[in-house]
């Protein structure tokens, strides 16, 4: 890919009520997850306030050949509310940690959304017809006076304005002691898993009162705790394989056929630490924040604080490729530790053909790496650069020395503007970038 | 040297983060607190390593002065920084003189001294001890390697050097729990025990004393000052919450010290065991009562 990226639509301030460019936002508006569905027609975002907004791609307009379908708001609903655990005196945040779409099996769409403790299955369906001509009630639904009914009629379906209905179909609760960080739908379309810091549970989509624990890394004595689970995902094709990443920078591939409890991994992917880079913060920056299978199922993409790595499932001792996302931060780890930025969990994404990987950075920058040509680009998601149809200009961070025009120096990076969540359309070159409370959608330029 | 300063700063920042995590919305984040505790451990290792290096250098000069001052320190235990008490305790000075004698004598006397001060006077004792000038109380610990250079018997040396000043266990069982308590990589916490309030004061006292007396080791005094490694990481964190002043971190580090020994490499880890054994015989210092009731770390984690 890496052709110049054209802005498909200007930033969709999905959660801000005021249209002005510099409207202030509340913390509840911060987008916390972004996910395309399996066809790419729908794009779901979750925010810290527990709301889910679904965008739908408009059908292409045939009159304008350059006009690709734009994404417009399809539905908005409140998925999770703040809760209070009275037993532990803990507040449970309503922030949506992850959204995962189920493969579509009928006219309705289903998605799973989760906060720290509870996973919910939502049904998103359209209604564009309604019955008219009831015998016993009138147009407004009031019961008719029977004496006025003189003849019988058969109600008919008449078209109506499209209405999108969202209803909760399942609530999977009370299965996690720790904070849920990942959910992943299995390729069998019947089960899914949810992972928290120490355990992974397997659910059936139709059963809410039971789940199976398949991974448990909680030590007998909690004082012996040395690592936690940070992300987990099912293999895209093999319903028995799953991978989970740890805070120590390791990946474990587990095969559910081996045992009911997959504590023993089938494969362990670990890169030996480089002793020359050792610092106080070595452990923090080696913690994997996201793991994604490639569409082919052959590779794994992981993100830790400074790098993105591509692993081959057949090679456990080291990654296939390592991409430096923002190595200029390596000398600033102490400051980043102080302002908590070092704990930011960046996500990563594959493109449809697994040839390009993408991940976010600071200053509203996001980076793409072409695995074949080894080229990479840094782009910015900002209002100024995102007028409709504008082409994004590659950015550069200079680390001192010669500074070209338009370069940004490391010291002037804005660490409050971080792109943690990105998503790539499953088949086309359309990307969704969440920058704090704004959602940007970019697409490849057509010539 | 700059590593030490940096390590110190990182430790105080880490403690602050752990404290703040307890009050933030959504409950304690296990992952983040685990990472913070790992940073804390690394920083502490560097800090101690640096400190030990510093002690080695000053050990030689300090030695003679320490011997001369030993008598003073014994007397001063009841009165902070006071040297007038010296003439009062001739008996003790004899004890001090005995320092040159076989180790067991000194050791037993030291132990007796400690026990006699068990209740409530420990803070003052520490102050007196520290202010006397013979103690090198950058609270962190003695360098075990430095101790052999002293003429002080090994027994006392071991106690002092291994004891990275924390309150002694109130009972032997708690002492043995030390290695477990040290493994406090988790980050949960329980409700604060109000008794903990005394801990920061102790730390403050120690720190002030430490600043005043930046001189040589006083190993016999160490015996009194040091307490066995029972304070779990959580204790120090809570102590830190009372005063976020980084100057208190040094004091905290000493309290930390033994409870963190389990997190250190194996050669360090061996020390707390011996220290714990010996400290169970030694007296109490400051917040022993409170600490006896606090096994908060493990409790907290288990509860979480």
UniProtKB/TrEMBL annotation, chain A:
Belongs to the phosphatase 2A regulatory subunit B family. The lineage of its organism: Eukaryota, Metazoa, Chordata, Craniata, Vertebrata. This is Serine/threonine-protein phosphatase 2A 55 kDa regulatory subunit B. The gene is LOC106604865. The keyword Transmembrane helix does not apply. Keywords: Repeat, WD repeat. PP2A consists of a common heterodimeric core enzyme, composed of a 36 kDa catalytic subunit (subunit C) and a 65 kDa constant regulatory subunit (PR65 or subunit A), that associates with a variety of regulatory subunits. It comes from Salmo salar (Atlantic salmon). GO terms for molecular function: protein phosphatase regulator activity. One of its GO terms (cellular component) is protein phosphatase type 2A complex.
UniProtKB/TrEMBL annotation, chain B:
Residues 155-164, 172-187 have a biased composition (Polar residues). It holds the Pfam family IER. It comes from the Eukaryota. Residues 256-266 have a biased composition (Low complexity). Residues 76-283 are annotated as: Disordered. Belongs to the IER family. This is Immediate early response 5. It comes from Hucho hucho. The lineage of its organism: Eukaryota, Metazoa, Chordata, Craniata, Vertebrata.
